[in-house]
Amino acid sequence: MTERLNRLRVILDIVAALAIIAIGAVLVWRFLGVRPTAPPPPQAQSRQPAPVPTESLSIDTLIAQGNLTSKVLIIEYGDFECPACLAFATRTFSALIKKYVSTGQARFGFRHYPLPNHAMAMPTAISAQCAAEQDNFWEFYDRLFRRTTPLHDGLLVDTAKALRLNSGRFRECRNGASAATAVQRDLDEARRLGLRATPAFVVGFINDQEKVQPTAVLYGAQDLQRFDAAIAEAQTRR
């Protein structure tokens, strides 16, 4: 019995010693004013400006609208199945075209950036490219982004019919290599530029080599005010 009591006293002495050490450490920590370093809040990280490509970009194959003499160009890298692309097309696109493209201050172009996690993105991009080959890209673009049902193959065919595209040419184009090659070319450029999401907007000015020199990159369904600032910067730097 005496031996058990002695063992218990030893254990209690050890627990008491550890408690004293812990309390002392807390007091020292508070006295010295040590504080853990918190990571920056997510919103602070998201405010960092997007990297702007340094290379000038060819516009030879760009699907674009606007006055050819305009020296500012906005290029959307978009995915027809992307919710943010849909939001931009229905909320900001018309106002942007009215304010800058219709007045000759800027041109607006589109490059395909179908994301691999969107099953209909690639076939829709190819169909839109086929519409472009019949000079109906922007009408196709508008109808697809104002759709009321999810994307499916029948919708693409019906949209082509509604625009009175040549059905034989449209079918051959979708099954051929030309449109798919054009879409892949755009996709490769987006990846080379390191564009990390859709929609991505490269804003820049036309340089002496008739290429666009990027001055800003915007991501997501931006409002008109963000484009105002990016376009103003491109105008001052051209």
Return the string of H and E elements. Answer: HHEEHHEHHHHHEEH
Q: How much helical structure, as a percent, in the residues?
A: 40-55%
Q: In CATH terms, what is the fold-level topology of the largest domain?
A: Glutaredoxin
* CATH homologous superfamily caption of the largest domain: Glutaredoxin
How many runs of DSSP E, i.e. beta strands? 5
Largest sheet: 5 strands, mixed
Instruction: Kindly name the structural category.
Output: alpha+beta
Task: Determine the number of helices (DSSP H or I, runs of at least 4 residues).
Answer: 10
Characterize the quaternary organization of these chains. Answer: single chain
Task: Describe how the helices and strands are arranged.
Layout: H1 2-32, H2 42-46, E1 63-65, E2 72-78, H3 83-91, H4 93-101, E3 107-112, H5 121-132, H6 137-145, H7 153-162, H8 167-175, H9 178-192, E4 200-206, E5 212-219, H10 224-237
Parallel strand pairs: 2-3
Antiparallel strand pairs: 1-3, 2-4, 4-5
